[in-house]
Amino acid sequence: MESSQIEYLPKYIQTGANYFVHKNQKEQGLKLVHSIDQWNIEKYVEGVKNDDYDFYDKYPGCKEVVVLGSSNSGKSTLINALNMGSEAAYTAKRPGKTQALNFYLAQHSVNKRKQGFIVDSPGYGYVFAPVNIKKKWQKMVYKYLGYGVRLNLIILCINGHIGLKQNDLSMLEDLQHFRKPVQVVLTKVDKITGGQGELVRVTTETSRHIQKYVAKGFVNPEIHLTCAEHFFGVKELRARIGVAFEESDVRANRIPRIR
After folding, report:
1. Which helix (H) or strand (E) holds 226?
2. Which class is domain 3-246?
3. Where are the domains of the chain?
4. Span 128-182, pLDDT tens digits
5. Which helix (H) or strand (E) holds 76?
6. Alpha-carbon span 222 to 215, nearest angstrom
7. Of 62, 8, 71, which Cα lies nearest the Cα of 34?
């Protein structure tokens, strides 16, 4: 499917496209500046409650966009594509490499004072890790979502080659409690076999499954299609993130029970 066939709001392109700068400039590009693991999440929560978290004092006013998805959805690869193809997030063929919330600083290519964070997260689903460790990762992510006072957008990556699975639907069920806007992104669309017809079918099926959550007002009805390897759809997603960095705070007020 050609990019011209996918509708994007013009304001996304106009106001957000200059976030993320060229990789050939040493001081620029995405840079990992902070991590929260399962042992430090309580410190984060306590800091947010008391409005006394050193990391936030260092970067006042910076908004956040978190990237969620199953362990094979290509989250880290997509983050690297957003970084003009330069490796920022570690990728691996073995699922479960990302084990912490990794905060990558992004800044406007012209106005360096305009900044925000892209947050990579542990994948859910099929992961090479003990069950108790996976549950700790999930609790860590949910606590961040519940107390993320600077979080303005959740990007939910769905592996386009596999399609929407029960793990993804379960995540959508849980995300409704956090009262944060969610952008669904179909990744790896180049891996979809069967030509344009199959791509349309997968996109339509995904759209049908998320309508329940669109109706509840927290999921964007538009689905972004991406191929990180060929940078298809990356510019548009980068622009959407840039807009989220400039939006007013969206607060969460509830943490769902961990199943």
Report:
1. none
2. alpha beta
3. 3-246
4. 566 677 788 889 999 999 999 999 999 999 998 888 999 999 999 999 999 999 9
5. helix 75-82
6. 13
7. 62
